[in-house]
Amino acid sequence: LGGSISRALQQMSNATIIDEKVLNDCLNEITRALLQSDVQFKLVRDMQTNIKKIVNLDDLAAGHNKRRIIQQAVFNELCKILDPGKPAFAPKKGKASVVMFVGLQGSGKTTTCTKYAFYHQKKGWKPALVCADTFRAGAFDQLKQNATKAKIPFYGSYMESDPVKIAVEGVDRFRKENCDLIIVDTSGRHKQEAALFEEMRQVSEATKPDLVIFVMDSSIGQAAFDQAQAFKQSVAVGAVIITKMDGHAKGGGALSAVAATKSPVIFIGTGEHMDEFEVFDVKPFVSRLLGMGDISGFMDKIHEVVPMDQQPELLQKLSEGNFTLRIMYEQFQNILKMGPIGQVFSMLPGFSSELMPKGREKESQAKIKQLDSSNPKLMNDSRMMRIARGSGRQIRDVMEMMEEYKRLAKIWSKMKGLKIPKKGEMSAL
Ligand code: GDP
Ligand code: MG
Fold first, then answer.
1. What NCBIfam families does the entry give (predicted)?
2. Alpha carbon nearest to ligand 1 atom 13, residue
3. Among 100, 160, 246, 399, which lies 20 to 30 A Cα-Cα from 4?
4. pLDDT per residue over 65-119, tens digit each?
């Protein structure tokens, strides 16, 4: 998406005269890219209309930075769609809140319930999980396993078939035990059917949740709006969590879910594991959606993990695009501390996940560790042969490492010319 949008903006910038036609062509191109990213058709069309109103053709003609003006307008419009105007209900530590999770089967509810509980537990809350999914065989076992792993109290039954009864019993029990975050996991069935929505309505009526969270799989594409709306019509959805953002989905469905539920996205799921869960933040999300990268997030990480006295030099090198093998090697321990390396790189502008395939981060990490700090530009065949012999490896291994380095170098080269903001003066654009 980022690529197509930059291309459209570039083409427009190259035009000598920016008239209505050139602007329209550009906006159509952007529209196409957004649709391909699963942003709902109506949202895209409204956005196009708004941008035309905002962008003043005379300003564009007067030689202002056209690309930047339009990019900023697209950015602002997307941010606006993701902001429903009021924050989600925020549970308070120490005061019992009931949070009910709804969503289709397979959307990631049970996994996300546990992540949500675990996230709060780490911050000193006393969460508890209630399994009110009596529809799917094995639902209780799954929740039990997750909860046990995270050491979170849970409630459920193998015998009882009435989800309302279990939900009420569980909530009552954990209220008595002074839990402050009582999380109710529900059934999803496999499609939107009347029986499911009726069940959600009943569980909600009986447990009186303070917050209903709609969980949506990011890969459902254009179906997002209708699905979110269907849930909103049966229960009082107050927040959204988008799952499987680590996959191929482009994330445009998040905009539809917010528009349909008039509720904000509060977290995103980025993997199957308990800690692959991130607080949702509008601006970095839109930056990434547009392929502009999340420089401020990346810089925050750098400031967080690289020792203070090494920061200026590293930042300088990064901005020169001179991230050499030696620096990479020297800084490797720090970079590892930044988290799974793929996640860190995904914050960079123009990053494509193909450069660092998921599941191969460990491999890449191990390979970089093996690399010595030699200058790869001088790496010719005989040198490779020598290194192979010297380290007791096959020449193929050395070549593989060089490929790995080239891939990384390609990523780092994107940093070239990057303006490095100082801590505290970071912007998404
Ligand atoms: P439920 O039917 O809505 O309760 O969905 P589950 O929690 O059982 O999840 C369905 C599948 O999606 C499971 O295999 C989960 O491991 C997987 N899953 C859930 N969230 C994520 C995520 O953020 N990323 C990935 N890759 N998989 C996820
Ligand atoms: Mg489930």
1. SRP54_euk
2. 108
3. 246
4. 666 677 778 888 989 999 999 999 999 999 999 999 999 999 999 999 999 999 9
- Reported in sequence order, the residue ranges of 106-180 that DSSP labels E, i.e. its strands, are 127-132, 154-155
Ligand nearest to the CA of 247: 1
Domain match, 167 and 23 both: no
* Amino acid occupying residue 146: N
**pTM of the entire structure?**
0.72
| DSSP letter, residue 157 | -
Residue 421 lies in a domain: no
Q: For 36, phi and psi rounded to 5 degrees?
A: -65, -20
Kindly report the CATH number assigned to the domain that includes residue 201. Answer: 3.40.50.300
Q: Which atom of ligand 1 is nearest to the CA of 215?
A: 3
DSSP bridge partners of 212: 100, 237
272 C-alpha to center of ligand 1: Å? 6
Is residue 282 located within the same domain as residue 350?
Answer: no
Domain that holds residue 376: 295-413
pLDDT single digits (tens) 47-68: 888 888 887 766 666 656 666 6
- Which of 390, 402, 391 has the alpha carbon at shortest distance from 364? 402
Dist. CA 91 → ligand 1 center (Å): 24
Confidence of residue 30 (pLDDT cuts 50, 70, 90): confident
For residues 223 and 337, state if they share a domain: no
Q: What is the ipTM of this complex?
A: 0.99
* Ramachandran quadrant class, 302 (left: phi over 0; alpha: psi -120 to 50; beta: rest): alpha
Helix axes 295-305, 311-320, angle to 10 degrees: 150
Q: Give the residue, by CA position, lying nearest to ligand 1 atom 26.
A: 271
Question: What is the rounded CA–CA span in Å between residue 411 and residue 407?
Answer: 7
